[in-house]
Structures are given as C-alpha cells and as structure tokens.
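To whoever is on call:

I kicked off a structure prediction for a single chain this morning and the downstream step that reads the tokens threw a length-mismatch warning. I double-checked the sequence; it's 71 residues and nothing unusual in it as far as I can see. Pasting both halves so you can look.
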Amino acid sequence: ELERILPLLPEADPDHAIFRFGLARALIAARREKGRAIELARSARAAFAAARRRREVAQVDAWLARHARRR
C-alpha cells in the first residue's frame, strides 16, 4: 500500500516524508531492500529537518542508528 501512495503525494507534502519513513521501516521489517530502506529514511529525515520537525528527525536518527550500520 505504501508503494502506491508515494507517487500520489507531492514531494513537498509533509505526509510524503511520513510515508517514505513508513516504507523504510516496512522494508526492514520484511528483510527486503535494505539499501532502498536506508535511502528512503535519509530522504524522509532531510524533509523533516527542512520542515523543522525535530521529533520526527530524532525518530529517524534513532532508527538509522539501529539499521544503517548493520550488514
């Protein structure tokens, strides 16, 4: 479902970052496409930072700390 929603939202829409991060988490949970998941999370983080959404930035940072280093 998340895969279908992303193309429908304008990238400037704050919900776009929420869905990107949600998709990143789903991909990791399903043990699929780790590189893409990390990319999506980093992109969502940048959007959250630009919107000064500190709580979401902190959530993505914590998630990346747990998942970006694992091989």
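Update from on-call: the warning came from a stale cache, not from the record. Cleared it. Sanity check on the structure: Helices lie at 2-5, 14-29, 34-50, 54-67.
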